[in-house]
């Protein structure tokens, strides 16, 4: 019973995009591992950009800097 966790930042991801992630992640596990899609679970965890960091900064800080062009 595969469990797939997709973590992304909360940045305007649409319901259609999430559905596509779920479908394509399921299809990948079915194709590569020959698992039953009926028992393949996909969870999308949307993390606030204040709680996601890279290179010592939060994504919120990075995005704000990009918005103001610095």
Structure commentary:
With 70 residues, this protein is of the alpha+beta class. It has a single domain, classed as Macrophage Migration Inhibitory Factor (2-Layer Sandwich). The protein has two helices and four strands; from the N terminus they run E-H-E-E-E-H. The protein has a two-stranded parallel sheet with strand order 1-2. Strand 1 (3-9), helix 1 (15-33) and strand 2 form a beta-alpha-beta unit. The longest helix is centred in the middle third of the chain and has 19 residues, at 15-33. It is elongated and about 50 Å long. The protein starts with a strand and ends with a helix. The relative contact order is 0.22.
What CATH first level would be assigned?
Alpha Beta
Q: Could you tell me the number of beta strands? A: 4
The total tally of domains equals: 1
**CATH level-3 fold name:** Macrophage Migration Inhibitory Factor
Please give the share of residues in helix: 40-55%
Number of helices, counting only DSSP H or I runs of 4 residues or more? 2
N→C terminal distance: 47 Å
Ranges where pLDDT stays below 50 over 5 or more residues in a row are none
* Rounded radius of gyration (Å): 16 Å
What share of the residues does DSSP label as strand, in percent? 25-35%
Largest sheet: 2 strands, parallel
Mean of the pLDDT scores?
96
Protein name: Tautomerase
Domain 4-oxalocrotonate tautomerase-like: 2-61
EC number: 5.3.2.-
Organism: Acinetobacter beijerinckii CIP 110307
